[in-house]
């Protein structure tokens, strides 16, 4: 009790010291983390001697842990500011409304499940004199140096301290179907080394999590916070920004976008106080926020720098006619105000057998213009299905074509004189218009079907309508996958298409278009018929945002850590996938999708709003430390318009 009261007087100064350290770099790692994974089946491993555990803070997380503790046979007491007696009875926990009564039950372990912001106040109110003098205190906060400092400051010296961080919660456990493989980080800050019973008690508590299959990571509090700022805080920051954007599922979701939707959903389940606590009480978080801010600004400058170069080229090099490629092709940008229906995914009828080769009447002769990675990726499946594939590219891909069973023709005139029924344009967004201008259309049959596979759709639609002869058919498509995401097959992956101009009076031309679409339907693709304008509106909110997040994170040079969460692993995977695409692809998504600029601005505003929330809270906290709740000071500030109180 005396230890508690004597340390209380220094709490204000220690908190200010904690805030001032936000600008400091973390010290070098002082320990090497030790990992272990339990291979035992929870049902067959040796039982753990039952512990008497008191949970302080019996909200969602306290109840979440209590369910497993009770299932393992431990005796659980609980106390909270709110009355959770009904929830406690349901779980099998004894709930105490009076903290003194609980402490007089002499629990072996006191488990602090309070929020980061309330932990210090809780410690100040604890009647330590009611507890046994060697009680083990355990916290589960997401920041560790702060928790360690508080426990050392407020607890009597003969109490044991174990700082822990279960890197999971109710949502991640549900999606993981249990705790197996999830990380549990701990630091034995102060355990009675000369008392074997106290050492055993600590080990028995840790065995609770090891028994459930957790990956046990022993790590100093300093190292934890250094890693967590680069993983957990960044993950929450991205999730908060995405939540502000109010992203929604679209008919053309990519796997990366679905991962971002899941991240935003998981973040929404945590209180802002948790995120704010990660920012204020982890001294490494401010640096990570600043780095993310700089990364986003660098990305914006890169995009706008290129855009400026394009505009200058048009203005000063006499290429004003190229401006026609930028608008969406509708007067007064009417397509931006179109009615956006949620029912845009139309069912594509496909009656052929999924397995086996196509019939002779459905076999196509396809000429691929642009035989890089994506052209080769598509050609492999087309050849497998029995189609005849010809290819041309600026670079010589003769050897690659031969391996795939494709006829490589180095001269475009020669390829077009072979009269392919379909010309599949697999060029980059930035080179498409130039390629179209160079094509010898006169060598083709007059009813040839032209197909593109670009990630933007209004731009190729307008370019095709402008460049192609009137009697050529046009099919705009977007396979929502690539060599990486489609390496294990295309089943269930989305394929978006718009029959822009197909000879309606000619059954053969309609059948040819359907035969081409059957290539993807046969492989199990989810076929989505959608207008080009509708596609670009959805894509700006999904594909462009996904690439933007990936590009920003790539500039941070994120790496895997010993304390990775599932959310952080999702971000690392996103960076890996995004970095595999050229910047030209991302720039093309920005330049040739009329909705992308709005999404970039919304992302920037969401990030700015989040920073204002964080720094506003920090300012109020510092102000309260400096002036307390002095009524005269508060009145003076309010009358001068300088009050920061809420």
UniProtKB/TrEMBL annotation:
<protein>
    <submittedName>
        <fullName>Arogenate dehydrogenase 1, chloroplastic</fullName>
    </submittedName>
</protein>
<feature type="domain" description="Prephenate/arogenate dehydrogenase">
    <location>
        <begin position="364"/>
        <end position="644"/>
    </location>
</feature>
<feature type="domain" description="Prephenate/arogenate dehydrogenase">
    <location>
        <begin position="51"/>
        <end position="333"/>
    </location>
</feature>
<dbReference type="GO" id="GO:0070403">
    <property type="term" value="F:NAD+ binding"/>
</dbReference>
<dbReference type="Pfam" id="PF03807">
    <property type="entry name" value="F420_oxidored"/>
</dbReference>
<dbReference type="InterPro" id="IPR045011">
    <property type="entry name" value="TYRAAT1/2"/>
</dbReference>
<dbReference type="InterPro" id="IPR003099">
    <property type="entry name" value="Prephen_DH"/>
</dbReference>
<feature type="compositionally biased region" description="Low complexity">
    <location>
        <begin position="1"/>
        <end position="24"/>
    </location>
</feature>
<keyword id="KW-0560">Oxidoreductase</keyword>
<dbReference type="GO" id="GO:0006571">
    <property type="term" value="P:tyrosine biosynthetic process"/>
</dbReference>
<dbReference type="Pfam" id="PF26213">
    <property type="entry name" value="TYRAAT1_C"/>
</dbReference>
<dbReference type="InterPro" id="IPR028939">
    <property type="entry name" value="P5C_Rdtase_cat_N"/>
</dbReference>
<dbReference type="GO" id="GO:0004665">
    <property type="term" value="F:prephenate dehydrogenase (NADP+) activity"/>
</dbReference>
<dbReference type="InterPro" id="IPR059064">
    <property type="entry name" value="TYRAAT2_C"/>
</dbReference>
<dbReference type="Pfam" id="PF02153">
    <property type="entry name" value="PDH_N"/>
</dbReference>
<dbReference type="InterPro" id="IPR008927">
    <property type="entry name" value="6-PGluconate_DH-like_C_sf"/>
</dbReference>
<dbReference type="InterPro" id="IPR036291">
    <property type="entry name" value="NAD(P)-bd_dom_sf"/>
</dbReference>
<feature type="region of interest" description="Disordered">
    <location>
        <begin position="1"/>
        <end position="25"/>
    </location>
</feature>
<dbReference type="GO" id="GO:0008977">
    <property type="term" value="F:prephenate dehydrogenase (NAD+) activity"/>
</dbReference>
<dbReference type="GO" id="GO:0033730">
    <property type="term" value="F:arogenate dehydrogenase (NADP+) activity"/>
</dbReference>
<dbReference type="InterPro" id="IPR046826">
    <property type="entry name" value="PDH_N"/>
</dbReference>
């Amino acid at each position: 009790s005396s230890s508690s009261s004597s340390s209380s007087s220094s709490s204000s100064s220690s908190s200010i010291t904690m805030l001032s350290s936000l600008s400091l770099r973390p010290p070098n790692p002082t320990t090497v983390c030790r990992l272990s994974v339990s291979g035992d089946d929870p049902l067959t491993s040796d039982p753990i001697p039952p512990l008497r555990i008191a949970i302080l803070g019996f909200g969602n997380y306290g109840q979440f842990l209590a369910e497993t503790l009770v299932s393992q046979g431990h005796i659980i007491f609980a106390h909270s500011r709110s009355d959770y007696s009904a929830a406690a009875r349901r779980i099998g926990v004894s709930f105490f409304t009076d903290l003194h009564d609980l402490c007089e039950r002499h629990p072996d372990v006191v488990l602090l499940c309070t929020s980061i912001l309330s932990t210090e106040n809780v410690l100040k109110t604890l009647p330590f004199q009611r507890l046994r003098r060697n009680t083990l205190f355990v916290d589960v906060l997401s920041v560790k140096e702060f928790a360690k400092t508080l426990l050392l400051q407020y607890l009597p010296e003969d109490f044991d301290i174990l700082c822990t961080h279960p890197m999971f919660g109710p949502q991640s456990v549900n999606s993981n179907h249990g705790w197996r493989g999830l990380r549990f980080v701990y630091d034995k800050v102060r355990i009675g080394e000369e008392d074997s019973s106290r050492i055993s008690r600590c080990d028995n508590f840790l065995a609770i999590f090891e028994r459930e299959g957790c990956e046990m990571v022993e790590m100093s509090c300093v190292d934890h916070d250094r890693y967590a700022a680069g993983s957990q805080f960044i993950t929450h920051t991205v999730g908060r920004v995405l939540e502000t954007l109010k992203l929604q599922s679209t008919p053309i979701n990519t796997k990366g976008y679905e991962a971002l939707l899941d991240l935003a959903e998981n973040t929404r389940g945590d209180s802002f106080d948790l995120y704010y606590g990660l920012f204020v009480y982890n001294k490494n978080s401010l640096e990570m926020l600043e780095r993310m801010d700089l990364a986003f600004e660098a990305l914006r400058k890169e995009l706008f720098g290129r855009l400026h170069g394009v505009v200058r080229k048009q203005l000063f090099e006499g290429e004003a006619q190229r401006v026609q490629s930028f608008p969406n092709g509708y007067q007064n940008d009417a397509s931006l105000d179109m009615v956006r229906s949620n029912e845009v995914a139309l069912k594509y009828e496909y009656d052929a057998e999924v397995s086996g080769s196509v019939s002779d009447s459905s076999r196509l002769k396809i000429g691929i213009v642009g035989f890089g990675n994506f052209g080769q990726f598509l050609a492999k499946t087309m050849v497998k299905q029995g189609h005849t594939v010809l290819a041309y590219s600026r670079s010589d891909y003769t050897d690659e074509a031969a391996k795939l069973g494709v006829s490589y023709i180095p001269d475009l005139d020669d390829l077009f004189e072979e009269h392919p029924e379909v010309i599949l344009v697999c060029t980059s967004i930035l080179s498409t218009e130039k390629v179209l201008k160079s094509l010898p259309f006169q060598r083709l049959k007059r009813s040839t079907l032209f197909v593109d596979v670009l990630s933007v759709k209004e731009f190729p639609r307008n370019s095709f309508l402008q460049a192609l002869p009137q009697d050529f058919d046009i099919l705009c498509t977007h396979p929502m996958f690539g060599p990486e995401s489609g390496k294990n097959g295309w089943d269930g992956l989305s394929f978006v298409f718009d029959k822009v101009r197909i000879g309606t009076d000619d059954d053969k031309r309609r059948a040819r278009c359907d035969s081409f679409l059957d290539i993807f339907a046969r492989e199990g693709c989810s076929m989505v018929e959608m207008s080009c304008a509708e596609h670009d509106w959805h894509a700006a909110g999904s594909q462009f945002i996904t690439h933007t997040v990936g590009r920003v994170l790539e500039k941070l040079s994120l790496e895997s850590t010993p304390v990775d969460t599932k959310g952080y692993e999702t971000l690392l995977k996103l960076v890996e996938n995004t970095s595999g695409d050229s910047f030209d692809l991302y720039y093309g998504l920005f330049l040739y999708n009329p909705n992308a600029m709005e999404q970039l601005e919304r992302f920037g505003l969401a990030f700015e709003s989040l920073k204002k929330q964080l720094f506003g809270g920090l300012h109020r906290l510092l102000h309260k430390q400096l002036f307390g709740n002095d009524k005269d000071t508060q009145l003076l500030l309010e009358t001068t318009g300088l009050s920061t109180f809420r």
